[in-house]
Write a sequence for this structure.
């Protein structure tokens, strides 16, 4: 399993992914699922993945090869519009899945992957897109300014209550970390370290990228503060009518 | 879908269930999933259900028939130990599933149901048990003093962080309502009204049972207060290191 979140607020984008990969309970490894492609001042893309790791790595390899190939019909760095990038990555994803699936006919392994693309191209707006295994995609919206892939349920309520377009980038990131903490506590196939990246609107580069582990001081502080604040919040909720009349 | 929670704290038991039943998107109905059996001063049982509604209703009918039948080998009101009750309900559940499954061979409908039993028998301890479709069961524990059935993920983080055996009955109930609110917001197949019941340890009856709907004043107060407190909690989390140094 995996957990990745992409958030789009007015200030820019927050992207976060865990790093746990497991092909079974006795085969758990750490692999980064966050891939950054940037040409500072021109374009920036962050791609995060859930699903088959071999498919994901094949997609990333294809994207890098196209960037380095001057004869490539299209590449991340030649794109003019973000939706073209999403279409292109979708096609690369479908092609790589199809190739692996051919060899997987006698096998129950799923070769599918799901991706989150966050980025901005000079002259265009920042955006976050969720790319499905079919190669099609959806964008965030003012009503739902975030997308999730992998183990999405445990961490959704806090995002849904807090995040809107007006949320600051840092508050959105704190909210994402709380969402990760809840997910990590409930699903052992999602695990630290967590990769966190900020793209500020118009900067056309990754403003900050941090890898957060158990001994990252600010993460410990946020987790402890959250546990305490949440307990206080429950303990100070309004009483039931029968509690006040006795 | 469904959402039910059974919580066991030192003060007693809190049981909560939603009431939405759907056989498809265009066939959504309201059915209580909380069934109370009590002989005040001798024993009290609350049974909640997720899964096939016909199976559940058949189980409840069987339990009631056995109570009313003086020749029944066993009934809820003749039981001496709560684990015997769980075993008995498990057997009734398996028998009713088997009967329906015989007729369902050409059909993809699942006839399975999952139950939560909370209760106490004079001379014994209060307990909460989750009864599986196989008829076997698990009990709450000091480490995990709650069980959930149905759509369990959205509402789990708050229970996991807050509830331990020392939590008061009313705080446990407020926490359950927050857990329901999160679940209802995320899964349209879980819906109001919510049934909430309290069994205080040693009282051997349901102390209080309330049906909570959109216009239940204390539920509105709790929801509004929760939304506000949660936002405050996120907004007052510790800053990232780079926020304090600039």
């Amino acid at each position: 399993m995996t957990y990745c979140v992409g958030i789009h607020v007015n200030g820019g984008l927050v992207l976060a992914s865990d790093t746990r990969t497991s092909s079974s309970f006795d085969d758990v490894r750490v692999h980064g699922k966050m891939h950054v492609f940037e040409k500072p001042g021109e374009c920036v893309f962050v791609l995060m993945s859930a699903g088959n790791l071999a498919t994901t790595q094949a997609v990333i390899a294809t994207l890098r090869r196209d960037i380095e190939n001057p004869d490539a019909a299209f590449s991340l760095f030649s794109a003019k519009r973000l939706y073209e990038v999403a279409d292109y990555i979708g096609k690369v994803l479908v092609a790589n899945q199809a190739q692996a699936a051919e060899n997987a006919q006698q096998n129950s392994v799923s070769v599918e992957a799901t991706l989150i693309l966050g980025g901005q191209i000079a002259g265009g707006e920042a955006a976050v897109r969720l790319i499905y295994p079919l190669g099609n995609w959806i964008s965030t919206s003012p009503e739902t300014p975030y997308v999730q892939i992998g183990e999405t349920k445990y961490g959704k309520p806090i995002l849904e209550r807090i995040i809107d377009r007006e949320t600051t980038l840092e508050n959105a990131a704190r909210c994402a970390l709380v969402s990760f903490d809840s997910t990590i506590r409930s699903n052992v196939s999602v695990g630290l370290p967590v990769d966190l990246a900020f793209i500020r609107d118009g900067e056309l580069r990754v403003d900050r990228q941090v890898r957060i582990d158990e001994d990252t001081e600010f993460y410990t502080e946020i987790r402890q503060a959250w546990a305490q604040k949440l307990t206080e919040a429950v303990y100070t909720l309004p009483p039931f009518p029968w509690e006040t009349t006795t």
User: Anything to note?
Assistant: Chain B touches chain A at residues 153-158, 160-162, 170-171, 173-175, 178, 182, 185-186, 208, 217-218, 221-222, 225-227, 229-243 (CB under 8 Å). Chain B has one domain: 3-236.
